[in-house]
Amino acid sequence: MIRSGRTIAAIATAVVPEEGSVGIVRLSGDKAYAIAKKIFIAPGKQQWESHKVLYGYIHSSKDSRIIDEALLILMLAPRSYTREDIVEFHCHGGIIVVQQVLQLCIKEGAILAEHGEFTLRAFLNGRIDLTQAESISEIVGAKSPLASQIAMAGIQGKLSNPIKNLRLDCLELLSEIESRIDFEEDLPPLSQVVILQKIQDFLHRVKKLLSTSKTGELLRSGLKIAILGRPNVGKSSLLNSWSRSNKAIVTDLPGTTRDIVESNLIIKNIPIKVLDTAGIRHTDNQIEKIGVQRTHLAANQADLILLTIDAQIGWTEEETEIYKKIKHLPIILIVNKIDLNVPDLSIIPSEIQEVIKISAIQNLGIDSIEEAILNFIYKKNLIAKNVDFTINQRQLEILIRVKIAFEDIIKTINNELPLDFITIDLRSAIKILGEITGDEVTESLLSKIFSTFCIGK
Ligand code: GDP
Ligand code: ZN
Predict the structure, then answer these.
(1) What range does the domain containing 288 cover?
(2) In a domain, 447, yes or no
(3) Of 47, 366, 382, 446, which has fewest CB within 10 angstroms of its CB?
(4) The pTM is what?
(5) At which positions is (6S)-5-formyl-5,6,7,8-tetrahydrofolate bound (predicted)?
(6) DSSP per-residue letters across 267-287
(7) Does ipTM exceed 0.95?
(8) How far is the CA of 276 from the centre of ligand 2 (A)?
């Protein structure tokens, strides 16, 4: 995984066949400059200077065939993303040219970059810490403007600073305690009360960091909503009309199975993943049975269910059957087709508090659904107000271990055990905190983190 010394190359932009106006190939490492000199001609009196744009042609040094007209940016170490020499070729978009340019770089001695290897080098060369590297990956994958804003805060160190400071404060306390153990007679005694206060402050800071995890999870994964109901109540119509009216940029992913269609929407900066499921009903047809099973699975993984009924038909035995299976989940009842009939809602189970009347066809009531979803999110505290950074799953797991270490120290103090017991837990907290920022990392942890990055990042 760690291959410093080699010059790496990758396509840095997303390339789509026949699309994209610019495609970037980049190189990082000692040979980057030499490779660029070999394959790029900058006509006229252009100087090869760092951080200046050169205009010219990329050509194969073997047969001097011109591959593309391009721009070149040279960023000499240490003023670059990786702190190594970097060269970027800004080529025409599409897939063929950038692949040829990449091949040329490989022919001239570069090796193909692995997932996240540019960012890994930035980390190894001390330009960024691990939380910043993770934020870089997150800004690429951001699902809403707020998510990207939070990732940007992470890149700027909003998350790593409190963690680094906490770790430094732990180190300071550790050395104070240790010097008492080593030179007991020479130093004034360190009162257990003072240590206790400090640890309680540390614990408070950890809890504050931990409290951002739900928001982080929501922004990263989105709220999962499943639309359920028997066939023909208008589930697909609802999702269609909703997708069209949701003002955010909508990406419709083709469903992973033929029974479930997934749409990604954004409500007030919160990514929402809506699943339109196959209708639930009793069936003896084998294929339909599988669809219904998938529906149940999707329902059980959802954070919120939109149980949909038809206003013309109202609540029937079939709805009662479906409801039995999902009543442990949060449910909003959607009464669709109110353009056709004023529904009788008197027999709806009283446990269902939230009922929204809509017409999918006439695009009525969709905003009420969005409002109810937002209320649900706020009521469940899934998003904090004024968030400026959030922790991710990996950081959450680590911080929980740190929290336990601090709680153990507090127990130790309350039980009036000797100082040595405190130092054991304090030292372990320091080590664990180092895993977040990358001050304490193993190669396997690094490859686990960076393997989730895209190639060229
Ligand atoms: P699904 O099986 O639950 O996904 O239901 P569809 O979305 O396929 O809709 C079933 C039928 O109901 C279609 O013919 C729709 O045009 C119709 N439909 C859906 N929503 C409405 C509505 O709000 N008003 C009216 N009048 N018809 C609707
Ligand atoms: Zn449908």
Answers:
(1) 217-379
(2) no
(3) 47
(4) 0.81
(5) 26, 88, 127, 457
(6) ETTEEEEEEEPPPP-----HH
(7) yes
(8) 7
